[in-house]
Amino acid sequence: xxxxxxxxxxxxxxxxxxxxxxxxxxxxxxxxxxxxxxxxxxxxxxxxxxxxxxxxxxxxxxxxxxxxxxxxxxxxxxxxxxxxxxxxxxxxxxxxxxxxxxxxxxxxxxxxxxxxxxxxxxxxxxxxxxxxxxxxxxxxxxxxxxxxxxxxxxxxxxxxxxxxxxxxxxxxxxxxxxxxxx
Length: 182
Prior knowledge:
Largest sheet: none
Low-confidence stretches: none
Structural class: mainly alpha
Strand content: under 5%
Distance between the termini: 123 Å
Order of helices and strands: HHHHHH
């Protein structure tokens, strides 16, 4: 390569004297265009095929969504109806439980050990309720799951009512305290 370069540098003026004819340049362009047009046509065809397949796929997916939403339309109506019933039930039982907590508030401050025990019991029941709610998301129409959730709310209410009754009975009978007096 060094020799060729050196020869071109020395004889540059002589080489630049001769201009190629316009026909030669046309032939060169034609040869270059043949290669380009082949690749351009091939890339264009590939792009068109890709666009056609993508459009068909999007149409197919869109149609399936429409079909599945039509089929599940009736199921969604039942789901929202049952979901509303469950929400109303939770609100009802939570309001009852909150009322019992308000009644028990002054008593629980006098008996911190009972408050701790009540807290442990309610925490256990709340964790069971959380598990049931997870099951409920999977089986919303399962009546047994709904009944289990309601039974847990009733259990919380029963525990609070029993605690209030026992404490009120103890306060009404001060006889036990007299045994320890001097």
